[in-house]
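Morning - JHZ inputs below, output right after.
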Amino acid sequence: MKKFLDLGMQPLANKYLVKKDLKSTKREQFYHLEVGFDAKSKLVSIMNTVPSPKMFDNKYPYRSSMSLTMRNSFKKLSKYIKKKFKPNLILEIGSNDGSLIKNFDKKKTLCIEPCKNLAIITKKKGYRTYAEYWNISLANKIKSKHKNIDLIYSANTLSHIANLNSVFKSISHVLSKNGILIIEDPSLMECLKKNAYDQFYNEHIYVFSLIAIQNLIKKYNLEVFNIETLKTHGGSNRYFIKRKLNDKIKINKNVKKHLKEELKFKIDKFETYIKFKKKVEASKKKLINIFSKIKKKNKKIIGYGSTAKSVTVLNYCNIDEDTIDFFIDTTPDKTNKYMPGTHIYVKKYKKSLLKNADYIFLGAWNFKKEIFKKEKKFLQSGGKFISHIPKPSII
Ligand code: JHZ
């Protein structure tokens, strides 16, 4: 793993603080956020990992159902899965609050969700949920209880697990002979194109490319038979995977096409990452400059969408509560709390909170379309957004 980017000391991106934590002598946990490239496997990964139980515990705040875009995306995919694959039993790794699985029959699903506060949500709704980490011992337990798991799905989860060999070995262990694996995660090519360096943080151990996924899964006799590019989460890839022995499914020409695009983009070359690093450093300077110019005019700035990504950006650019008065967010477990590192207060979303703001920093830039539609009035009345993606600018 050769380092190409240093995003400084960072707090754990989803560890929100309450008032008494701010006075506590017990310091917040920070880690050094460095990103590297492995020339052999083509994997791009953070270099200092934080143990899973420190991140995914019984207080994990992120809820995938908080955005209409994601709810719609999961609904559309569920329809497609039912029509195309007609699965008997679906296993979802990282089911979060059930935003995908709620589209399926309870008898035909199994959920894996190690964050106990989230697992309880699907359990209460009657979905069979294992509140455990995905690994070989859980795969053994599941295999002894459930036969014929013919579809495994995982969105924005596998990139969060350090030991990818254990991940794919466990998947291969439980997946039926002609079963399908669908995984979905932010796309490395889109991350580089959009200069979205905030896709790197403690939870995003990896940002995958097709080439890296292919290298990873071939050891388990798995292969990508189709790939779909999505707009969600700033540009994601959805990989459709099967066993090599399954010759009932043909490889779609999209796979070759996508691989060609990645190679043309030089995703397999270290020089690409050095260029990216330079762009990231320039972006930091520009964003700081935008904020300081606005503050000099005594204008009020608030933040919209207290994302894990914005924790990375704000800590990297040293922007704190002196610059951004507060954030607004719809997630219950983030509100009335303070953001990691910068200690900017997060208020529960209310339209009236936008009224006195001159500028809004768009933390959830990946939901720009959804948010701009919702906040049409703010924009029409002369309000401005600040976004650092793809380049720091005022919109
Ligand atoms: P969002 C999380 O990253 C963490 P984050 C995790 N590591 C991951 O991989 C991705 O998700 C998938 C709020 N919001 O999805 C809700 C509003 O308030 O970009 C969320 O807090 N109003 C698992 O945190 C945040 O913004 C709105 O109208 O970077 C969005 O977070 C909308 C649309 C969102 O993920």
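Note: The longest strand covers residues 175-186.

O.
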